[in-house]
Give the backbone structure.
Amino acid sequence: MIRLKNVSKIYGSGAQAIEALRHIDLEVPQGSIHGVIGLSGAGKSTLIRCVNLLERPTSGSVQVDGQELTRLSGPALNQARHQIGMIFQHFNLLSSRTVYANIALPLELMGMGKAAIQERVKPLLELTGLSDKTGTYPAELSGGQKQRVAIARALASRPKVLLCDEATSALDPQTTGSILELLKDINERLGLTILLITHEMEVVKSICHRVGLISDGMLVEEAEVGEFFTSP
Ligand code: ADP
Ligand code: ADP
């Protein structure tokens, strides 16, 4: 579902150049939960942002569901991005919009009508346990609730892939657990492919099928989760 081939990313140029990703090969099969773990500055954020071209790789190939994204730009890239949802450490909700209006936003931007939007949003509110919060503003929500809104918003365009950028790093352990349960549920019920980056071992252990270790811009190790943590 996600295939990165020989992806490199260099920020800046000349003496200031930073090689954030070096020759990354990554394959995430449909329906799996794949984690990439690494220290701060290792390249995790850059890697996940290259998957939906929030960062454009300096070289290499990025395919999602068989489509080469690096050849796309403008409206064609926006169209392709409907297949790729993303959630962030700090939720990135719009504070001036209610829970409902945050979730509806991507659908409004796609030009969908009010009735169709309502039909999409309602089951997402149920799935994420937010049915009684539709008129609430983000400032009145807990961190876990905010991330649930962000998850519902990410799912609104019915993506095939969900990218999670340190999605639980701002949450306490108990809330982290409940968000991870929700992601697992979404993976199982919707067959959604999930790629997540984290610096937390526990996150990887509790929901990932496979895990890769990134260090200094290189994927240095990759294995099934059980194997990864028992290897000497
Ligand atoms: P991580 O997510 O693992 O903390 P990042 O992908 O954010 O790692 O960063 C990898 C390297 O690239 C770091 O050295 C970081 O300072 C650098 N970097 C990240 N984004 C930029 C940018 N927009 N411009 C210049 N350097 C960047
Ligand atoms: P995150 O919480 O997503 O890891 P960061 O605080 O690492 O975010 O980075 C925030 C933004 O700043 C990102 O868009 C990242 O690409 C950019 N960035 C990170 N490191 C650098 C850097 N050394 N120079 C310029 N921009 C950077």
Q: What stands out?
A: The beta strands are 2-11, 18-28, 33-37, 59-64, 67-68, 84-88, 161-165, 193-198, 210-215, 218-224. Residues 11-12, 18, 20, 38, 40-46 surround adenosine-5'-diphosphate (ligand 1) (CB under 6 Å). The first helix runs from residue 44 to 51. The radius of gyration is 18 Å.
